[in-house]
């Protein structure tokens, strides 16, 4: 009826495989109350992470580095705080595992190993799911034109996490402000001084002038577009 009732069972029953499997089948988090031996039992742990991927947190250290267990866990998770957070270091650098995790939740990139956060294929998969995942990418990826463009096309707010050169890249900034004028706030100085960029933002909302540099604000065409609104 409620797997978490395993908490109130005596120690011997928390070490009973049949009872623990029944508990984790109903609620994966019941693994927390299982004995150490059963937290290291692959069959029990697989049952738990199949019910709830985040139950991986309660598995033994060895099983948190088991490819089958971790792959099962990351496949189940559909929400933020991916099971990847609870995987062992080896698994967080396993490309197959990480690709599945970021496809479920781009923010899972936060828990990937350093090599994976600098792997272009992995980062592209993450930002395709959630543009803001760019925040967790390695420095090289936050300065990669293709990656950053894919991120801002998905979510203009990703511009905030882009490298300085990318925030001064006209194609990238144009893609961001075309979605939302507020993206101008995150653009580099050169772009905030670019009449064409500022014009696109101001046409959407005159308040974009707050983020523009002096030159566009002294341009008659830009100011006409602004005062026509307010």
Order of helices and strands: HHHHHHHHHHHHHHH
Strand content: under 5%
How many runs of DSSP E, i.e. beta strands?
0
Helix content: 40-55%
Q: Describe the global form.
A: elongated
Are there runs of 5+ residues with pLDDT below 50, and where?
none
Give the N-terminus to C-terminus distance in angstroms. Answer: 62 Å
How is this structure best summarized?
This protein is mainly alpha-helical.
Description:
It is built from 15 helices and no strands. By secondary structure, the chain is mainly alpha-helical. Helix 7 (120-129) runs parallel beside helix 9 (145-154). The model has no long low-confidence stretch (mean pLDDT 94).
Write the layout of secondary structure elements.
Layout: H1 17-26, H2 36-39, H3 42-51, H4 67-76, H5 95-104, H6 114-117, H7 120-129, H8 139-142, H9 145-154, H10 164-167, H11 170-179, H12 189-192, H13 195-204, H14 214-217, H15 220-227
Helix pairs in contact: 1-3, 3-4, 4-5, 5-7, 7-9, 9-11, 11-13, 13-15
What brief labels describe this structure?
230 residues; mainly alpha
